[in-house]
Design goal:
mainly alpha; 4% strand; 21 helices; elongated
């Protein structure tokens, strides 16, 4: 007896002997709600009663993988059509109606119910925005529950985990399909928190640590619109609920720890840092030990992640906020950034130079004396970088008037440190725009302290002469050794190996273009015949290539 597709006839294990039962089909009500796997399978019978299964493409543009029964909503009367005493009850009914969830991956399904929910959300937003003293204690659990049902969900994994890192300038973000409803839910909850009638003493029973934890988990959403609303929502929660502030900071720290030391993947680091920037601005002085620990163990290690460019502006702002609060941390911060300096990542070098420039705007003169040697040693390396953007950004430090005033106070130490790199690149750098910036920097150093500058110039010339003399002496010693070896009687029996040097590049000679004459070879057009004569190339000629071509042509001619 052939088996039925997805409903197999078999003997009962628990029934009487010989009694058979048929399992319920996957799409029948008796079988319970269909699962995500069984709904995505289509079966068809082929020859020989064989079943071939074809699985549909998984949903990729929505974070919801729920397959609930269809909900048919009924439009409720408007607030203007209801008496004042019945409006609170109607408000709660509309909030409960907004707890219904819909599948937005099917664009044409349940259009009527989706529109009823959208209209209900707009009505309750308008109701709490335009009316005063309308929030009752019974509304708080209903509002928080509706927000949680609509938004708190398990985020899906990325569409392609092995793909290259997300580039906000090049790649398109993955958008949430249910955003038409989610946006209104976020707006309603923000209006609820910002309402003059909002009472944190009542809401704290429902907005607790579990609520905050689930809210922070949503920051990993791939939709930038949702992360922007989450940023504002969390900031309002942080301001309204004083008892949750410590928990929010610790939870954000844990997200950063996991990102830096474990996963290295998170979509909401920039938004979380932006929230922390405003939180740091409100820290009281002197800073607590936990805040300093957060700076050194979280913010500084964030510089070493590969995707630092996606959140670097917010990170730099947090660092500057800390140093404005407590300038004594400047030395530890600068040394921490220098330890994270990349070796071959030029764009990241430019980012760190920008950050250091912002830090130097707020540095105190006493703190500058502690970091100037290590800092200008790194600037010397950046000026000598073959990447012109790194060299250019390092030379722009000489356009910072406040920094130049600090350099002027320490000219005797910094001019000898910077002079070799500046003088070498004033003529040796391949990019001509760097030459002008180097000359500007040298002129500033010369105006600061002319005697020290002249002394450095003299020492550098002597150093170059010594290096040149050492090269000449080395060549003379090798020539002398070769001459002594040739005078040895055994040199005829033991040949002296001559290393093959690379073929030197031939001199390139530019040919002068011939004067235009009647018999010129320049491109001309014969008006009578319409024939175009191509002019001979004026490109520089390579003598070695020309000789090789002549030899090839000579050898290929017939005898």
């Amino acid at each position: 007896m052939p088996k039925k597709i997805l409903g197999i006839s078999r003997k009962s294990v628990h029934g009487k002997k010989g009694e058979q039962r048929q399992s319920a089909p996957v799409d029948s009500p008796a079988g319970g709600p269909p699962s995500a796997f069984t709904q995505g399978i289509k079966a068809r019978v082929d020859q020989g009663d064989r079943a071939q299964f074809v699985r549909e493409t998984p949903r990729q543009n929505s974070s919801r993988f729920r397959y609930a029964n269809h909900v048919e909503l009924t439009k409720l009367p408007g607030f203007k059509e209801t008496s004042h005493k019945d409006r609170p009850k109607l408000f709660i009914e509309k909030v409960r109606q907004c707890c219904a969830l819909f599948d937005f991956t099917e664009a044409l399904s349940e259009l009527k119910s989706k529109e009823i929910k959208r209209a209900a959300l707009n009505e309750i937003i308008d109701y709490i925005s335009t009316n005063r003293k309308v929030l009752t204690e019974e509304m708080y659990p209903e509002v928080v529950n509706m927000f949680a049902i609509n938004l708190f969900r398990t985020l899906p994994p990325p569409e392609n985990p092995n793909a290259a890192e997300f580039d906000p300038e090049e790649d398109e973000p993955t958008l949430e399909a249910a955003w038409p409803h989610l946006q209104l839910v976020y707006e309603f909850f923000l209006r609820f928190l910002e309402s003059p009638d909002f009472q944190p003493s009542i809401a704290k029973k429902y907005v607790d640590a579990s609520f905050v934890l689930q809210l922070l988990e949503l920051f990993d959403s791939e939709d930038p619109r949702e992360r922007d609303f989450l940023k504002t929502t969390l900031h309002r929660v942080y301001g309204k609920f004083l008892s949750l502030r410590g928990y929010i900071r610790r939870t954000i720290n844990n997200i950063f720890y996991q990102f830096v030391y474990e996963t290295r993947k998170h979509n909401g680091i920039a938004e979380l840092l932006e929230i922390l920037g405003s939180i740091i601005n409100g820290f009281s002085l002197p800073l607590k030990a936990e805040h300093k620990r957060f700076l050194m163990r979280v913010l500084i290690p964030l510089h070493k992640c590969r995707q630092v460019q996606t959140y670097h502006p917010q990170l730099a702002y947090c660092i500057v906020q800390f140093l404005e609060k407590e300038p004594a941390l400047t030395e530890d911060v600068i040394k921490g950034i220098l330890r994270q300096w990349p070796k071959v990542n030029s764009p990241k070098e430019v980012l760190l130079l920008n950050e250091i420039d912002e830090i130097l705007e707020v540095v105190e003169p006493e703190e500058f004396g502690k970091i100037m040697v290590a800092l200008f040693e790194k600037l010397s390396d950046c000026i000598s970088s073959p990447h012109f953007q790194v060299s250019e950004r390092a030379l722009y430090f000489w356009h910072n008037d406040y920094l130049m005033s600090l350099v002027n106070e320490n000219a005797a130490v910094l001019i000898p440190q910077m002079f070799p790199a500046l003088y070498k690149n004033s003529k040796g750098h391949w990019n001509r725009s760097i030459h002008g910036l180097v000359y500007h920097a040298l002129k500033l150093l010369s105006d600061m302290n002319q005697p020290v500058f002249d002394e450095c110039s003299s020492k550098y010339r002597n150093l170059v002469q010594k290096q040149q003399k050492a090269i000449e002496d080395r060549e003379k010693k090798w020539a002398k050794l070769e001459e002594m070896a040739r005078k040895n009687p055994l040199s005829k029996e033991v040949p002296i190996p001559n290393p093959r040097m690379p073929t030197p590049m031939p001199d390139i000679v530019m040919k002068e273009p011939q004067a235009r004459t009647g018999g010129d070879t320049a491109a001309t057009v014969n008006q009578a015949e319409g024939i175009i004569t191509r002019r001979k190339s004026l490109l520089p000629q390579d003598p070695a290539t020309r000789r090789a071509l002549e030899q090839h042509q000579a050898s290929s001619l017939p005898p």
